[in-house]
Write a structure and sequence with these properties.
- This protein is of the alpha/beta class.
- It has helices at 10-20, 27-39, 42-58, 75-78, 93-102, 129-136, 152-165, 189-197; strands spanning 60-61, 68-69, 86-90, 108-111, 143-146, 170-173, 200-201.
- It has two domains: 10-58, Helicase, Ruva Protein, domain 3; 80-201, Dna Topoisomerase Vi A Subunit, Chain: A, domain 2, CATH 3.40.1360.10.
- Helix content is 42%, strand content 11%.
- A hairpin with a 6-residue loop joins strand 1 and strand 2.
- The termini are far apart.
């Protein structure tokens, strides 16, 4: 029996293997990206590698809202033009980016860092809920908007967070033009803008 022929030389195989570990990248996409990178100049490849290293070392979390930030306080929290009395609660930084693209929301954010999911061993204590309660319990917060994707875990999280915050301020949830299980980050800007405009009181 003849030995199996290796399709890729070892360094290329390693590169494809690493690229394939990225979300949404299958074998064919990984191969295409790897072959594209090999055609780039050494300077371009080094710039990409350095950007990855810099992002890993420098990007952390905002001490106020827990959005991704290279500074102790992110650009959104520190912007004087933002509404300081409205807080939009989301599960992930990707949701912040999606909502910012609508250009409809000008308040603050709070990133929970996930969703309550007992099946995955994620409970309320694993989320950034204590800092959220501390923020909302301060005088002046007029509204908390819950902008969490309408999955089973999302509904559980929305109800839990809502009941936690209702003693302190008005709590609303965005209206969804999304199917059950849809993700906020994949919704188009118009759908998200309408969802913000059509928000309603939690429990209504």
């Amino acid at each position: 029996m003849e030995p199996k022929t290796t399709i890729y030389t070892r360094p290329l195989a390693r590169l494809i293997e690493q690229l394939q570990r990225l979300p949404g990248i299958g074998p064919k996409s990984a191969q295409r990206l790897a072959l594209h990178l090999l055609k780039q100049s050494e300077e371009d490849v080094q710039a990409l590698a350095q950007a990855l290293i810099d992002a890993k070392h420098q990007v952390g979390y905002c001490s106020v809202c827990f959005h991704l930030s290279a500074e102790p306080v992110c650009e959104i929290c520190s912007a004087p033009s933002r509404d300081q009395y409205t807080i939009c609660v989301v599960a992930d930084s990707r949701d912040v980016i999606a909502l910012e693209k609508t250009r409809e929301y000008r308040g603050q954010y709070h990133v929970l860092g996930g969703l309550i999911s007992p099946m995955d061993g994620i409970g309320p204590e694993q989320l950034a809920l204590k800092p959220l309660v501390q923020r909302v319990s301060q005088p002046g917060v007029k509204e908390v908007i819950l902008a969490i994707s309408p999955s089973v875990e999302g509904e559980t999280t929305t109800l839990y967070v809502g009941h936690l915050l209702q003693p302190f301020t008005r709590v609303t949830r965005i209206a969804f033009g999304l199917p059950m299980g849809g993700d906020l980050e994949y919704a188009d800007e118009v759908t998200l803008a309408r969802a913000l405009e059509g928000r309603r009181e939690l429990g209504a």
